[in-house]
Amino acid sequence: MTTVSDALDMTVRHIDDRTAVVDVSGDVDLHTSVALRAYVSALLAQGARHLVLDLSATQYIDSTGLSTFIRLLHAAERCGGSLHLAAVPERLERMVAMTGIAQLLPVHATVDDALAAGTAGPAAGDAEGMPG
């Protein structure tokens, strides 16, 4: 499943029935955040519980994008799951750290690190975890 919205492209890779990696490329901003929320909400509705957003190809994130990540975290937690960010580009790392997003949800250097971390983040109570 691939979706393109303005300057945002999203592709999902299902790791297993409960775990998915969403490759996010382009801009996560006021104009594209609604599409990202809808895309991830659809994955949660389909049974994915543990999500990793691969941001390696993300060009820009504004405050609406950061707010969207928090909304998605809460949506995943309501389903008993987790949300992890992975491969945040160097040009965006400082913004993620300065805004406190990194204290709210796990940020990993790579997708493999995020998958290996399982549910060590906010949804640690989930016994099934993510595959490693």
From TrEMBL:
It comes from the Bacteria. PROSITE patterns: STAS (PS50801). It comes from Streptomyces dubilierae. Pfam families: STAS. This is Anti-sigma factor antagonist. Coiled coil: none annotated. InterPro entries: Anti-sigma_ant (IPR003658), STAS_dom (IPR002645), STAS_dom_sf (IPR036513). Residues 21-118 form the STAS domain. Belongs to the anti-sigma-factor antagonist family.
